[in-house]
Amino acid sequence: MTQHLRAECGLILTILFRQPGFWVPTVLFPAMLYAFFGAQSGGGSWAANAMASFAIYAVLGVGFFQFGVSVAQDRESTFATWQRSLPGHSANRWIARMVASLVFVSMAVCFVIAVALLMTDFVLSASAWARLVLVCLLATIPATVMGIALGSVASARAAVPIANLIFLPLAYLGGLWVPPMFMPAPIAAISEWTPTRAMGELAWAAINDTAWKPQQLFTLMGWTLFAAAVIFVSLRYANRQ
Fold first, then answer.
1. Mean pLDDT for each 10-residue chunk of the chain (241 residues)?
2. Quick one: pLDDT at residue 170?
3. What is the dihedral angle through the alpha carbons of 37, 219, 150, 53, rounded to the nearest 10 degrees?
4. Which residue in 125, 116, 143 sits closest to 198, CA to CA?
5. Radius of gyration of the chain (CA)
6. Could you please report the per-residue DSSP string of 188-241?
7. Which one, 31, 35, 111, 218, has the greatest CB density within 10 A?
8. d(CA 232, CA 22)
9. What is d(CA 164, CA 168) in angstroms, rounded to the nearest whole number?
């Protein structure tokens, strides 16, 4: 890791950790929801699958609310404008945000898992745990890139309501709250094309020790590339102002 990248990582983590009123609810909320709803699913495989769903919900929340909102705020910050004039590759800022996202995702997912282990009685194999962790780390990439894309086009004041307008429907359509088999047929058909459904399917496959399907990986790749294109276009537009 280069000196500039280390400095960027330290800066973004310091800024975020100094705002506990912002990151603490984001990290704790998925675990709290699991305690209220997921842990009441009856134990066994239902509780395990609910845990996987809320772990993905935690990943998505960090991406949208930690980084979507913070990027929108940075765009209107004189400090961030000055920071962009400093030496160093611009990619360091985005890599640093991804590293910071992994830190907060790890915290949020660990809280969900801890609540699940305390309140339910399911048992998973070591390989299932390892695959679930891998899925959460993999899902962090599209979730964070989508969050940054949101922050790249929304104002600081509009970022939170817009994040809610996108985040909540994605969580529902992805089957993170209601299992896909219980969805109305038209909703289930739309669900197949959402990034959250792809994340959920990968997480559920990890829990149940079944094979991952390439379709889900291609879906996540497509949404990641789309979000990256939004970021690229917004940056080009901003540089012309």
1. 76 81 85 84 79 94 80 68 60 80 92 91 89 94 90 83 89 89 88 94 93 93 94 74 56
2. 92
3. 10
4. 143
5. 18
6. HHHHTTSHHHHHHHHHHHHHTT-PPPHHHHHHHHHHHHHHHHHHHHHHHHHHH-
7. 31
8. 27
9. 6
Q: Which two tokens stand for residue 216?
A: 């889900």
Q: What is the DSSP string of 182-201?
A: GS-HHHHHHHTTSHHHHHHH
First to last CA, the chain: 33
CA geometry: angle 18, 26, 199, nearest 5 deg: 130
Phi, psi of 201 (to 5 degrees): -60, -40
Q: Where are the domains of the chain?
A: 3-240
Buried (b) or exposed (e) across 127-147, using 16+ Cβ within 10 A?
ebeebbbebbebbbbbbbbbb
What type of residue sits at position 183? M
Q: Sign of the CA dihedral 52, 229, 236, 2?
A: positive
The tally of CA atoms less than 13 A away on the side-chain side of residue 18 is: 7
Reported pTM: 0.87
* Predicted pLDDT of residue 6: 81
Q: Do residues 60 and 143 touch, judged by C-beta distance below 8 A? A: yes
Tokens coding 142:
């599209």
Q: Which two three-digit tokens encode residue 104?
A: 């907060």
Q: What is the pLDDT of residue 42?
A: 64
What's the token pair of residue 46?
């239902």
